[in-house]
Inverse folding.
């Protein structure tokens, strides 16, 4: 059941696309017991807490359309519909360190990813979108095409979260500035003690 009018927001019109930066976190490094949701808006995560000594890693996608192909699609279920979130990540390198520390990790790990929408929404509530919180993002495809014009011989890895109960989850606490500070802090080692 819906709970508000469906209409275009003329004061804050939607803008398509994503900003070129995000933060990827090994899902097992998230302290789920201490993460906090907004009490009234259930699609807003107020605090994304990492375990002590853990941190997220920057993911940068340059070009006109960063994270091209990012999408969320409804999956029809027998008793309940769920969502599949898919995020392609281009890794523009193919060195031994990158293959060992990024590609092999992406291929076999489970992740939470925070991306920045170009559409910020009212007070910045829609800027930071979280993927993989519920089921984890795992690699559904990976390829290294030596003559690829898109990756210049690098890698294209696709992360996917299946069976998510929410169409979208946003990171937002108090205001845009507070949330941006929390987002940046995800890239430094957590000190919870």
């Amino acid at each position: 059941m819906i709970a508000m009018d469906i209409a275009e927001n003329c004061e804050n019109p939607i803008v398509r696309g994503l900003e070129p930066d995000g933060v990827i976190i090994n899902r097992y490094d998230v302290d789920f017991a201490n993460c906090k949701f907004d009490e009234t808006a259930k699609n807003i995560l107020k605090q994304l807490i990492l375990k002590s000594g853990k941190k997220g890693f920057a993911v940068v996608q340059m070009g006109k359309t960063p994270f091209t192909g990012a999408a969320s699609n409804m999956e029809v279920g027998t008793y309940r519909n769920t969502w599949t979130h898919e995020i392609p990540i281009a890794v523009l390198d193919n060195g031994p360190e990158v293959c060992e520390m990024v590609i092999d990790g992406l291929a076999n790990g489970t992740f939470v990813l925070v991306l920045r929408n170009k559409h910020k929404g009212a007070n910045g509530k829609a800027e930071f979108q979280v993927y993989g919180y519920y089921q984890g993002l795992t690699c559904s495809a990976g390829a290294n095409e030596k003559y690829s014009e898109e990756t210049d011989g690098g890698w294209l890895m696709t992360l996917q979260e299946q069976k998510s109960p929410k169409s979208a989850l946003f990171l937002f606490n108090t205001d845009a500035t507070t949330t941006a500070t929390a987002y940046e802090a995800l890239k430094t080692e957590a000190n919870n003690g």
The helical segments are 96-108, 176-185. The longest helix spans residues 96-108.
